[in-house]
Amino acid sequence: MLKVIPCFFSLVMICFIAFAQDNKYKNYKYEWSAEKPPEIKVEEQFKDADAVILEEKTVHTLSTGTISRKIRIKFLSEEGIKKYATFILPPTDDFAGDHYSLAYWNKDKYHRPLGEHSSIIYFVARKLQPDGSVKPISFSDKTEKFIYYYNKIDQTYYSWFITLQNISVGDEVEVAFAYQNLFNFNNYFNRIFFNSEIPKQRYELKIRYPNTSMYFFQNHNGVALPDTGVYKGTNPNSIEYTWHAQNLKGCIIEKKSRSYLELPFVSFYSHQGDYGTLSANRAYIEKNLPYPWEFIFLGNNNYLQKTEAGYVNYLPEFPTVNLSKKDPETIAVKKLVEETCGSDSNKVSCMNKVHTLLSDSFDYEKNYDPQFEYMNEDYSKVHKSINAKKLYEEDRLDLYNRICKRLDIDYYHCRLYDKRVSRMNYNEYYPSANFNLYYVLPYKKLFSILLS
Length: 452
Prior knowledge:
This protein is α+β, with helices and mostly antiparallel strands. The chain has helices at 78-84, 95-98, 259-262, 293-298, 328-341, 347-361, 382-388, 396-407; strands spanning 11-17, 51-61, 66-75, 86-89, 114-115, 120-128, 134-136, 139-150, 153-164, 172-179, 182-183, 191-193, 200-210, 215-220, 227-231, 238-248, 265-270, 276-278, 285-288, 303-306, 312-315, 363-365, 368-369, 374-375, 390-392, 429-434, 437-442, 449-450. The protein has three domains: 11-270, Immunoglobulin-like (Sandwich); 276-315, no CATH class; 328-450, no CATH class. It has eight helices and 28 strands. The strands form nine sheets. An eight-stranded mixed beta sheet has the order 7-6-10-3-2-13-16-15, with helices on one face. Strand 27 (437-442) and strand 28 form a beta hairpin. Helix 5 crosses helix 6 (347-361), helix 5 (328-341) crosses helix 7 (382-388) and helix 5 (328-341) crosses helix 8. The radius of gyration is 26 Å and the shape is elongated.
C-alpha cells in the first residue's frame, strides 16, 4: 500500500523589494575570451523583430545544479530595448513547466523559477562596437522577494531584475551569467526548450553529468541526436551532450499555446540502475531501460517481480489486477463503483461520480499525527474505510488506485485545477501536498477535495 505522510504549511506570501539582496555576483572576476567576436548578421526573417539573439550558448551541469549562459543579442527597436534590456534571473527554460503551480491569471505576474540568497554566481555585459572593439556595460538591479512560510518558519527566495544601461537601437550586446540552487513548487518536468521569448539564430545546449551517474534523455519534435563527448573539467570526468539549433522563433510564452506539441525540446531524468533487462541467472541487470509510467507514479513503496519480457518490474504492495478476486478490498471497491455509476458506461463520467461521492459523503480523518507520531490503525484497510465512509491519509491514494483499476483505464496522478481555489479562505483550510496529488482539507468539514 502506498504510504502517504501529510505535509502541512500555513501561509504563502509575496512582496516586492526594490534593492539587490546579494551583491557578490558583481565582484566575480569573469574573463571574456580574448578572441574578437565574429560578425553575425541578422537573418532576413528576423529583421522586423524587436530584438534577436544572434547566438546563445548554455551549459547545464547536473551534478552541481549550475547553469551558465552566454548570450549575444542585437536590439532592433525601442520596443525591443524596453522589453528585453532587462534580464530576469534565474531565467526559465520551460515557461509552462516552471509556471505550472501558478494560477493561469498569475502566470504573467509572478516569475518562476526562483533562486536562493546567493544563487547568482556572476553577471557581466559588454557592448560590441562596429569597429570590433568592446565596451563594458553598466547595469542596475533590483529583486523580487518571495516569502514562503512553512511550519511557522519563513523561507525566502528571489528573482533578480538586471537592466542594461545606455542601450540604443542597433546595439549589439554580449551578456554572460551563471546561477545555481533554483527553487520551484512541484516541478517534475526536467525539460529544456530551445525557443525563448526572443528569436534565436544560433543555439547551443550542453548538458554535463558525472560519468558515474546515469541519465536518460529524450529528444522531442524533431530535435536531432546530440554530439557526445567527455568533459574533463570535473572530478570525476563528465559525460557531455551537445545539441545545436538555428533560427528559432520567439514564441514560448504565447497564450494558450501547447509548446510541447510543436517546439523542439529535450527532457531527461536520473536513472538509478534499477530497471532493465535481467541477466540469465537474474542476478543483475544487463541493460538499463527507460522507466515505464507505472514505475514513475508508484514510487518506492513496491517490490521486484520478473515479468514475461524479462524485466525487473516495480509493482505496488497489492500488484494483482485480477478484479474477480474475493478479498474484502476488491469486493468493497467493486460495490462502491457499481452502486455509484449504475448503468453509466462512460468511464470519465463514472470516475467523476465516484469522486463526487467521496467528496460529499465521506468524512476525512488522518491516521498520522506528526507531532505525537501517533498512528490510528482502526481503519487501515480500504474496505474498512469504505464501509465506515471515512477517508484516511494512509488509504486515500490506494483507494483511488483501486477504483481506477476497477474502471480498467490508463491513468496517472495529476493536478486537478479548480476555480474554487481563488475563493478559499486559508484561515479555514490547510493544504496537504502528497505525491502529484494536491488535497485541500477543510478544518471544519472533514471531507477531502482534490484541488490545485
